[in-house]
Design brief:
The protein is an alpha/beta fold. It folds into two domains: 23-113 and 268-308, D-Maltodextrin-Binding Protein, domain 2; 116-264, Periplasmic binding protein-like II (D-Maltodextrin-Binding Protein, domain 2, 3-Layer(aba) Sandwich), CATH 3.40.190.10. The chain is 38% helix and 20% strand. The protein contains twelve helices and 13 strands. The chain has helices spanning 2-17, 45-58, 71-79, 93-100, 135-139, 155-173, 179-190, 201-207, 217-222, 242-245, 281-291, 297-303, and strands at 34-41, 62-69, 87-90, 109-113, 116-120, 146-149, 194-195, 212-216, 226-229, 249-253, 260-264, 269-274, 307-308. The strands form three sheets. A six-stranded mixed β-sheet has the order 2-1-3-12-4-13, sandwiched between helices. Strands 7-6-8-5-9 form a five-stranded mixed β-sheet, with helices on both faces. Helix 3 packs parallel to helix 4 and helix 6 (155-173) runs antiparallel to helix 7 (179-190). The model is unreliable at 1-29 (pLDDT under 50).
Length: 309
Amino acid sequence: MGTVRKIAFLVMSIVLIYSCHGRKVATDSQGLNGNLVIFHAGSLAMPFKAIADSFMRINPGVKVLNEASGSIDAARKITELNRECDIMASADYAIIDKILIPRYASENIHFAANEMALVYTSKSRYFGEIDSVNWIDILARDKVFTGRSDPDADPCGYRTLLTLKLAEIYYGDAGRSDIQALTQKILSKSERFIRPKEVDLLALLETGAVDYIFLYKSVAVQHNLEFLTLPAAINLGDPQMAGYYSQVTTKVRGAKPGEKISITGEPMVYGITIINNAPNKRAAEAFIEFLRSDEGGKKILMQMGQSPL
């Protein structure tokens, strides 16, 4: 029986090490242990929990501690609050470039894509009428309320502003002379429904406090919500429209109080980095390897409505 057990243990070890289509995945036999602290975008809350759970099954000596917030706020925890973490994952790779590199991080790995969508429920006013042509007119109606996240804290917030600026160009080119007035009305009405990060908007939608929210498509998929697919020229989700998206810009608060950074429209790309002084760098490297593996993180992202890169 001793020999049988040894063979079974050897086979199990080989399966764990090569479980990701032949790519080596870190296992507890490599001595990985301790806490692995990850600051990440709110839109990654569900996929990163699933990825962390799978990673910890493979590496039982490691405890992954996920902390969700707006991506800009996640970066500021490192730069302003001097909080220790191992990994920072942003809904916009540019936040890592602009705020963390080179002082706090060295490498920016692009790992996922997404797109903006307009999310609603069966309780939303005019939900049976709204479409990709009339959505701005409906959102501008007096009794319709829209929620959005804070552009100074969360990429979804400033991407909402970029989406509306792109809508002004897109529908303006189609002959709509009133489009800018409508988008400004939408922004003005939504100011009371601004929240720190995009997932905070879900409660407003579910309680009927707002009728629609600007949100990532992946989050709508993860929460089984109805959503309107916006035209590709507007939704920041088409890599082939990078030139068109670059026509619009907005400014948000930077790494230091009073500092502003400029954000230019571009296709959505998520970024992840290991912090230079990460306390558990070996586990961080193993986690990112697992995140990028075909049967690990990539598979989970796809199941949750996000396109891995």
